[in-house]
From TrEMBL, chain A:
It comes from Thermodesulfovibrio autotrophicus. The lineage of its organism: Bacteria, Pseudomonadati, Nitrospirota, Thermodesulfovibrionia, Thermodesulfovibrionales. Residues 18-271 form the Transketolase N-terminal domain. Transmembrane segments: none annotated. The keyword Protein biosynthesis does not apply. It comes from the Bacteria. This is Transketolase.
UniProtKB/TrEMBL annotation, chain B:
SMART domains: Transket_pyr (SM00861). Pfam families: Transket_pyr, Transketolase_C. SUPFAM superfamilies: Thiamin diphosphate-binding fold (THDP-binding) (SSF52518), TK C-terminal domain-like (SSF52922). InterPro entries: PDH/Transketolase (IPR051157), THDP-binding (IPR029061), Transketo_C/PFOR_II (IPR009014), Transketolase-like_Pyr-bd (IPR005475), Transketolase_C (IPR033248). Keywords: Membrane, Thiamine pyrophosphate, Transmembrane, Transmembrane helix. This is Transketolase family protein. The lineage of its organism: Bacteria, Pseudomonadati, Nitrospirota, Thermodesulfovibrionia, Thermodesulfovibrionales.
Length: 283, 313
């Protein structure tokens, strides 16, 4: 087993990475003319924490057998993942300009055959946790110490397959499997509780045999400690991260219209200005 | 191997042999291990067998995850559930990332019998054929099923292996060697080419015998790999006989017959007749009763050949 990569130790540094990722997301989707800003922006701190504090990954060696696995089950948040992979050093930053364009490795949804660091192709919702169960079983058979992290959307948890996977994970006592739910409470048709209610959500995971932790998904001070309990758990862990869809851009926040719409040039400029102001506040 | 065992049973035997020789072989099932014969592997190698329970979609996802770790994964269930309940999972999580998962689908076709239409998979070949990069294999007997299982493990990438419930008579010679993508001329003839797969190979062979008394010499091709189809063997035969009859225990829509038609229409247009289940659902009954009702017997093949040849013989 290799050393944990403590790439960044201070929250201000993490916040500035998160802001860079947010800016990339806006630029990428605006350039592409299509994509999903809302759900990409809501999971930025989660991805930042994972890649820069939690995952045992070597930026120079993406194929390491004993690397931690990360699965973006909510595949439409691909821009957030691509921007994070570029910050982390798995892919060149220039690639970000090609999102969704013909011939680009950065497909509308993640394609493992085209992008280093993508562990499984996703996009059709509800499938990532099952793949995570398979990977976690793989680690057990191979007697390797890697952990498998799956980021799910909350709307995605309306798929029955998520609960099939949740059931299997606790049945096989997969204490090396961690599900993080980006609980931004909005899906395409509106509020999750109006479209198809998920609450009591934490209790559902508990009932399926998971250990659960609820955190503010934008607060590194809550997200990172949640991951620190992993070495001590005997069952799979679900981290319910309460987030804001469109986080960081005032006119996108909690606005369902920004689920799958690209900002126009002026809108992107305005969003980038806002994010730039936040960068200045950090310094 | 003894006579008249089901292809699913030969699959189970092959898995055990694979398990002995390759520690990377992992098997999954969805609460049907006694029926798919993966139970044998489960007993021998419990650490490499995982039951997903009655949750086919999750099983396919688990298979994908295991495949990314370098395992050769066999995921087994009934054909109807593999292809219809877990289709998007096969498409998205297995085929799109080109993962090394073998979908072993037993109890295919109408001969599953008494359980009725809900359990009779008659569109699975069609569905699996349509998925990019999916190899589709329909073994004719237990000898071929055993070899096809071994060959599937050696072939990197997704494979759909279609197996049946009922025991099949041996149709392949002792020294037969299965190769993915290679059809086999089981009987040479000059008047008509009969292309069959799975259980219908036996019926086609019986039909060829009967056709002799009508003065018709039929060439029989066992097209066990429906995709990618062996164009060469098919065309060599058709150029000699000038007409084709296809026979499959599957809907006439989208299966072997249509695959043959695609080749013929592009390369050597000639008369083709397809034998299979018409555009309809099955029903409960004994396999032999159903084969008769849905026009899948050797006598049906004989009749179609006679109609096709008309006065030309």
């Amino acid at each position: 087993m290799f050393e944990t990569f403590e790439l960044v130790s201070n929250y201000t540094e993490l916040q500035s990475i998160a802001l860079r990722i947010r800016k990339s997301i806006i630029k990428m989707i605006s350039q592409a003319g299509s994509g999903h800003p809302g759900g990409s922006l809501s999971c930025v701190e989660i991805l930042t924490a994972l890649y820069f504090k939690v995952l045992r990954l070597n930026p120079d060696y993406p194929e390491d057998m004993d690397r931690d696995r990360f699965i973006l089950s909510k595949g439409h948040a691909a821009p957030a993942l691509y921007a994070t992979l570029a910050e982390f050093g798995f892919i060149p930053k220039e690639w970000l300009n090609s999102l969704r364009k013909f011939g680009s490795p950065l497909q509308g949804h993640p394609d493992m055959k085209k992008v280093p660091g993508i562990e499984i192709s996703t996009g059709s919702l509800g499938q990532g946790l099952s793949v995570g169960v398979g990977m976690a079983l793989g680690a057990k058979i191979q007697k390797l110490g890697y952990r498998v992290f799956v980021l799910l959307g909350d709307g995605e948890c309306q798929e029955g397959q998520v609960w099939e996977a949740a059931m299997a994970a606790s049945h096989y006592k997969l204490n090396n499997l961690i599900a993080i739910v980006d609980r931004n409470r909005l899906q395409i048709d509106g509020n999750t509780e109006d479209v198809m209610s998920l609450e009591p959500f934490v209790e559902k995971w508990k009932a399926f045999g998971w250990m659960t932790v609820e955190v503010n998904g934008h607060d590194f001070g809550e997200i990172i400690p949640a991951f620190q309990i992993i070495p001590y758990i005997s069952k799979p862990l679900a981290i319910i991260a309460n987030t804001v869809k469109g986080k960081g851009v005032s006119f996108m926040e909690n606005n369902v219209d920004w689920h799958g719409k690209a900002p126009k040039h002026e809108e992107a400029e305005k969003a980038l200005e806002e994010l730039e102001e936040k960068v200045c506040e950090l310094v | 191997m003894q006579n008249r065992i089901a292809t699913r049973q030969a699959y189970g035997l092959a898995l055990v042999d694979l398990g002995k020789n390759n520690p990377n072989v992992v098997v999954l099932d969805a609460d049907l291990s006694k029926s798919t014969y993966t139970v044998k592997f489960a007993k021998e190698f419990p650490e490499r067998f995982f039951n997903a329970g009655v949750a086919e979609a999750n099983m396919i996802g688990m298979a994908a995850g295991l495949a990314t770790c370098g395992f050769i994964v066999f995921a087994s269930t009934f054909a109807i559930f593999a292809t219809q309940r877990a289709l998007n999972q096969i498409f998205q999580s297995i085929a799109y990332p080109e993962l090394n998962v073998k979908i072993a689908a037993s109890h295919a076709g109408i001969t599953v019998g008494e359980d009725g239409a809900s359990h009779q998979s008659i569109d699975d070949i069609s569905i699996m054929k349509a998925i990019p990069g999916m190899t589709v294999i329909v073994p004719a007997d237990s000898t071929e099923a055993y070899q096809a299982t071994i060959a599937a493990a050696r072939h990197f990438g997704p494979v759909y292996l279609r197996l049946s419930r009922a025991p099949t008579p041996q149709v392949l010679p002792e020294d037969y060697t299965f190769k993915i993508g290679k059809a086999c001329v089981l009987r040479e003839g000059s008047d008509v080419t009969i292309v069959a797969c799975g259980t219908m190979v036996y019926e086609a062979m019986a039909a060829a015998e009967k056709l002799l008394s009508h003065g018709i010499s039929a060439e029989i091709i066992n097209m066990s790999t429906v995709k990618p189809i062996d164009r060469e063997t098919l065309l060599n035969s058709v150029m000699k006989t000038g007409c084709v009859v296809t026979a499959e225990e599957h809907s006439v829509i989208g299966g072997l017959g249509d695959a043959v038609c695609a080749v013929i229409s592009e390369e050597y247009p000639c008369p083709v007749r397809k034998i299979g289940v018409k555009d309809q659902f099955g029903q409960s009954g004994k396999p032999e009763e159903l084969l008769k009702v849905y026009g899948l017997t050797s006598d049906d093949i004989v009749q179609i050949v006679l109609n096709l040849k008309g006065g030309r013989v």
